[in-house]
Amino acid sequence: MRKRNISLTSAPGAESSITAQGFFKNGIADATVFLDHFEPLTPNMKVKYNNFWELLRSGNRINNMLMKRTDKDGIGYAWAEIELGRGVTPFKVVLFSDEMLNFLLQYQKAQVTVRFTLQELLDEAQRIESGNSQSGGQSSATV
Predict the structure, then answer these.
(1) Considering only Cβ atoms within 10 Å of each terminal Cβ, which end of the chain, N or C, has fewer?
(2) E strands in 54-99
(3) pTM of this prediction?
(4) SS3 category, 112
(5) For the chain, which residues make up each domain, given as ranges?
(6) pLDDT per residue over 92-128, tens digit each?
(7) Which secondary structure element, helix H or strand E, spans residue 52, and what is its range?
């Protein structure tokens, strides 16, 4: 029997809401890695990334099989085709961890919902970063 990851869901079949705090607390992404990836993006790429999270927050379906791939620079990603009213929009989503792929798969199965905006992710990542720099690299947050 396969072991189920219980960090994102409270009970088998139960839907769990993931907030910006939970995104980092549950190991979906590391705040530093997230910011290091986001900051150099072009303005158009930032808009597209924002659109991806807004579509998930609105409950739009991912209608393709998600799998981890690696680009020519060795960065892990997945293609996510988000279903719209009359078509689909594809997104190349950088996977910050194996847990992020698991999170997207759980979203696709309607086991988790997105309850954050990109701006909330950025604010939370910056809050974590400033807390880490003030405590000499040690996180003061409790899990």
Answers:
(1) N
(2) 69-70, 76-84, 87-94
(3) 0.81
(4) strand
(5) 16-131
(6) 999 999 999 999 999 999 999 999 999 999 999 999 9
(7) helix 43-57
